[in-house]
Design a protein that fits this description.
The protein is of the alpha/beta class. The protein contains 20 helices and 8 strands. Helices cover 58% and strands 7% of the residues.
């Protein structure tokens, strides 16, 4: 995300100021100018000038406090965000203004643009030529006679979906009418399907705008998006709702394209992964064999019991399949993925080892087809999934009481124990449970029992955490 936003900003000083602001917002302690200078590869004098300019942009009740010889710290109300400040920088950017107006079908000459922006024509041309290198990654190009974006319609839509998705995160302005937003959200909730809401808004906004302006998708897509039953029903309902709201009827290729982009916005599930595995194994043996080789390669270093290997396949394949689709359509993964710099998270343990394994797989089984960024994308998700599976704890709740009491206890446990703890209210005899939590006496159980009271007190929750996470 940050790579995409930074690429839209043509002024290096502005990029540094945004970096400094974000770093100060993240860091609760003093950050030295030398630290910033090392990270941004500039002098401490440049950092001091940047901070001086940044101070002018901040709201009146915000302060960047400097402590001599020690560094800087940002003092602002906790309920206020740095995002509007970044948004103000972004909307002043030349590239942002040009790309936004091109989307709205305003195709001015280079000379006209230089007049609008009060910028030297040659300087503007150089900015656009530099930006063309980024656009070329998705087979797009800026035409210079009357500035406009050239390329396949699918690639143009991909670019602008990324454009609005990332830029609207800095502003509270929605690109969709509130009535339509409510209807789409209602469909998601009713079908119990999880989706990136900001991405959904951007997809619909770009599709409707391009369709109304007679920029149509004219080709068939090789890789089909695969959904679970719930997801397929939900997306079909949403497309019908969009058509009804705008009183249009999408032709086949247009609807197929919309289905594909909505697939990008879904939060993947195990049932979707299983459906994807089944589809690929039946319909694309080449892709399936490569994926199985990838999983086998990962398991060389990451030992898993047999019962969890199927889970690993189902959870990794949506990300692998996503890369296959992006490659088929020549969509740059750099638009949607920033390589990981910090590996502090527990879920990213062994990332470097997995990255090396997948790089070797790419050379041995994949004819070096995946780029470094695509390999990093798969490695980061596979690592998080592997660590989540390895650390997963299965618990069954055996509770004697009313349905209301049982549900309350269940919800308390779910909220307190985190995502890596699965809690069943009905025993599944195919699962080997790590613990049983119960308020009644049990005997002849294979898993250790943690006894609780009818009310489940705060002290009991703390004791459960200590027991299952080995905190003592």
């Amino acid at each position: 995300m940050r790579n995409f936003i930074y690429s839209l900003i043509d002024d290096k000083a502005i990029k540094r100021q945004i970096f400094i602001l974000e770093a100060l917002n993240r860091e609760p302690k003093l950050v030295s100018s030398q630290n910033f200078a090392d990270q941004l590869q500039c002098s401490t004098r440049t950092i001091m000038n940047d901070i001086s300019q940044l101070r002018k942009k901040l709201p009146g009740n915000w302060k960047i406090i400097s402590v001599k010889t020690r560094g800087y710290i940002l003092n602002k109300p906790v309920e206020e965000s740095v995002l509007p400040v970044i948004h103000s920088y972004l909307t002043e950017s030349v590239l942002y203004k040009v790309m936004l107006e091109i989307f709205h079908n305003k195709y001015y000459t280079l000379e006209k643009w230089s007049q609008i922006l009060y910028m030297n024509k040659l300087t503007l041309r150089n900015h656009l030529k530099d930006y063309n290198r980024i656009l070329n990654e998705s087979r797009l190009n800026i035409k210079f006679r009357n500035l406009q974006l050239e390329g396949d319609e699918m690639n143009i839509r991909y670019y602008y979906i990324c454009f609005f998705y990332f830029t609207q995160q800095f502003s509270d302005q929605s690109v969709l009418p509130i009535e339509l937003r409510k209807k789409l959200l209602s469909i998601l909730y009713r079908n119990e399907v999880h989706m990136d809401i900001l991405l959904l808004r951007s997809i619909v906004f770009v599709f409707i705008n391009r369709f109304y302006n007679k920029h149509c998708v004219m080709k068939e897509i090789k890789f089909k998006p695969i959904y679970s039953r719930k997801q397929a029903t939900c997306l079909n309902e949403m497309i019908i709702e969009i058509e009804n709201y705008y009183k249009i009827k999408f032709p086949k290729y247009e609807k197929d394209a919309l289905n594909l982009f909505l697939f990008f916005g879904l939060i993947s599930t195990s049932s979707q992964g299983k459906a994807m595995l089944e589809y690929v194994s039946e319909c694309d043996q080449e892709v399936y064999k490569k994926f199985i080789n990838l999983i086998t390669t990962l398991l060389i270093y990451n030992q898993l019991p047999n019962e969890l290997k199927g889970k690993l396949k189902a959870e990794v394949i949506p990300y692998f399949y996503m890369v296959c689709i992006l490659r088929e359509l020549h969509f740059s993964i750099r638009h949607v993925f920033d390589p990981i710099n910090s590996l502090d998270s527990v879920l990213l343990r062994n990332y470097k080892e997995n990255l090396s394994l997948i790089s070797n797989w790419n050379e041995t089984y994949n004819e070096k087809k995946f780029t470094k960024d695509e390999i990093k994308y798969i490695a980061s998700h596979a690592t998080a999934i592997l660590n989540s599976i390895c650390n997963e704890i299965n618990i069954v709740l055996v509770f004697s009481g009313t349905t209301v009491e049982k549900n309350l206890i269940y919800r308390k446990l779910k909220q307190s124990l985190g995502e890596n703890v699965n809690i069943d209210r009905i025993p599944n005899y195919n699962i080997k449970y790590d613990f049983i939590i119960s308020n009644c006496q049990l005997s002849d159980t294979r898993a250790p029992v943690i006894y609780i009271s009818q009310m489940l007190t705060t002290n009991e929750i703390d004791s459960i955490k200590n027991r299952i996470f080995n905190l003592n």
